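Archive entry. Fields below.
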Amino acid sequence: MLKYNSMELMISVASRFLEDGVSVSVGTGAPCTAAMLAQKLHAPNLLIIFEAGGIAPLLPSMPISVGDSRTMYKAYQTTSMAEIMEALQRGMVDYCFLGGAQIDMYGNLNSTMIGTEYDSPKVRFPGSGGANDFGSLAWKTIIVTPQNVRRFVPKVDFVTTPGYLTGPGAREKAGLPPGTGPYKVITNLAVFGYDQDTGRMVIESIHPEVKLDEVKKNTGFKLLIKDEVLVTEPPTDEELKILREDVDPLKLIIGREAK
Amino acid sequence: MRREERKIFTEVDPDAMRDLFRRKSKKLENKLMSVKNAVNSMIHDGDYIAIGGFGSIRIPTAALHEIVRQGKKNLGLSGHTSTHDCQILAAGRCFNRCDIAYVIGLEAMGIPKMTRKYFESDAVEYTEWTNASMSWRLKAAAMGLSFLPVRTMLGTDTGRFSAAMEIKCPFTGRKYYAVPALCPDVAVIHVHEADIYGNSHINGIIVSDVDLAKASKRVIITAERLVDTDFFRNNPANTTIPFYLVDAVIEVPYGSYPGNMAYEYYLDVKHLSDWLDAEKDEKSYKAFINKYIYGCRDFNEYLNLNGGLEKMKRLRDLEYLIKTDKEETRNA
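PREDICTED_STRUCTURE:
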């Protein structure tokens, strides 16, 4: 069995959630890597959608921008951003992949600012981009992020992208399409799902050689824990081989250790 | 959730726009101009501008540098995934208000420090949006409407700090956000081909540029190459943006450099990384901007400063995934 790093583990685990024939909107970085791995391994008919307008490309290498030429390579269509967003609003996008600077137990994400005053941020981030639109309109949101107490916070400074907001029913009450919301969170320590009754994050599996205490210590809120906590299936040799040789040979993404 | 009073920075009233578009010339006439002249005569201090393409993809770099060189001030900026274009305009401190969907960051490449500082200072006032809502704001304007109902941003701080208003669907009772039309004073769009009248062809993704051209009071087109008007007459499907929306046409080969131009040339990752590095402190930032913007008389000087035609050849190889043996090609 080959050795692997945390980024390779996160990407392999993320890719397994993408079944053949589903649609997914992705950004650059780890999400794109996961979609490429899925497309080359078990989901050759994965419909990859880029918000800038690229539809169903056969990605030859890692895009640097979600609008660059790689997202148009052997694509079936190159269209407008409105058309992509309208497909999301019509309910045609099954999965989206997101990250953020902060996440809370309901899966609300912050990629806008750190601080308490919107008009004088301590740190300003780029903003939603398409994140809010994906998190609002895709059926299932998968979050891929490093885990520590700075990121896993009791309350995000700014809700850029909706998770389950304040709990069950809050999305629907706000007017968001029913049946949508966070599905999984994949970190360098564990895989989380969501408890249907409370809308809160629950541990599904812990990565090999990681202790439950370590997961708790790196979380700034109370995690729900199932009676039986599984161990995450590590990346297979096949996954690692494709990831290293075909998907990211320059190690642009898998060369980074997630902390 | 308490709603914040946030500003709308452009015209929203469709009748004001109708009046303007009624008076806009629909005459088929030669609109060729220089970059200097177009920026000088069509972009005024205080105007709200929107840049076509996608931040570092199909951007009108020549016009952006010229806006900085001519010292345009107090512009409004559509931050509809505004990355390297935003970075250039921030270098000239050209804008003081911004609709933010995505700004500052260069996506996977990272966040330029000085551009971020500009947004963190009091120099820029902003309203929060998303990529979809900005697309649809342009679409509302393109449709000749004052708003569109949308299902995004609901329940979030993004929505709270936007200028959207909650409305109820008269048919289903569902809650929507009404997003106001976005009518920029000027749009600057880089395209693959254009004729002298302004008919324009874009290859690959359109992003929001068709709606943007329809929504804007004035439209400046920069094109990789000029083509005979028969390119459009013989195949009208080639017309992505029709002549009657366009006010100025400028031929600028490699005009999206160091950005990507689909089917032409790839991003110059090296130059963009150097720029990112230069933003680490005031001194290196100032020197970099002086060298690459203020120190260049025009876009051609900037291209030559960055390796000229030889560099463009390598970026073309990269675009077409042509593998050459030279190590330098791979690292271009």
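CURATOR_NOTE: The longest strand of chain B covers residues 186-194.
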